[in-house]
Write a structure and sequence with these properties.
The complex is a heterodimer of chains A (about 180) and B (about 130).
Chain A: H1 3-6, H2 17-31, H3 41-62, H4 64-74, H5 89-104, H6 111-139, H7 142-174
Chain B: H1 5-12, E1 27-34, E2 39-47, E3 53-61, H2 64-77, H3 82-85, H4 90-97, H5 104-125
Antiparallel strand pairs in B: 1-2, 2-3
Helix pairs in contact in B: 1-2, 2-5, 4-5
The chains are: A mainly alpha (about 180), B alpha+beta (about 130).
Chain lengths: ~180, ~130
Amino acid sequence: MNYFDLFALPHSFEIDLAKLSAAFQSLQKMAHPDKFAHASSQQQLLAVQKSANINDAYQILKTPIKRAEYMLQQRGTDMPSEQTSFQDTLFLMRQMELHEMLEELPHADDIDGAVNAANETLDNEYQILFCQLQQLMQDNNTASDKIASEIVRKLKFYQKLQLELERIEEQLFDE
Amino acid sequence: MAYSEKVIDHYENPRNVGSMDKNDPQVATGMVGAPACGDVMKLQLKISDDGIIEDAKFKTYGCGSAIASSSLVTEWVKGKSIEEAGKIKNTDIAEELALPPVKIHCSILAEDAIKAAIEDYRSKQS
């Protein structure tokens, strides 16, 4: 069953998170394995599977990058495998610069200021890509879906940078 | 997950880390990335007029296996012709470093970096 149908939501990348969360909770209540404590073992197993499926669906729809990937798959977009390396040189050069920027953070004169500036830079660049993704997901044709899948790949690099920055912040402010 | 001794050695003492001038006509640059883990790898080769790789440098942001794969590749390609370097397979890298299956993509990345650098060199020549 399509995940959007499961939660009775329109098939759209723009999603009402409050509605998603409410639908998730009511479905999860109905499928909760505790409710089937006295049912046959087959019914119990079904309830556990259903509950797990609802959880997976919720995690995917809740997270924008996963939601986009899921929708693109459903639309039959040809997605490059995870193993395929990414070769957009300009984009990767920028990624190198951003990693270098993060590497320099502990040596900055004003660490707080540098960390804030780094957060802002990453956010801005993420947002620019994300806005493009929103538009492309709405366009919903073969060409736009193909570009959207490239943007999803790019956003993953920003996710990694975001995690790296969080790790550095933890180290810096623990000391 | 335990890294092999060779991975740890390359990770702790990476060979040939650095950058060359990418605008130098003798310098070929290969940039590749792995979206799944966010790794970014830059491999640069200095190639003589007769097509021999005289020097190699790398810079990699990624896990230990990605760093070790690119470090190893810089050692391997030095002194080779670009044709020979282009024949290096990810399986050779993975075998040398005893990479576990979940880290095979790091060796693929290193192989692709060599190919991307050679492509850059050819486009600069033409």
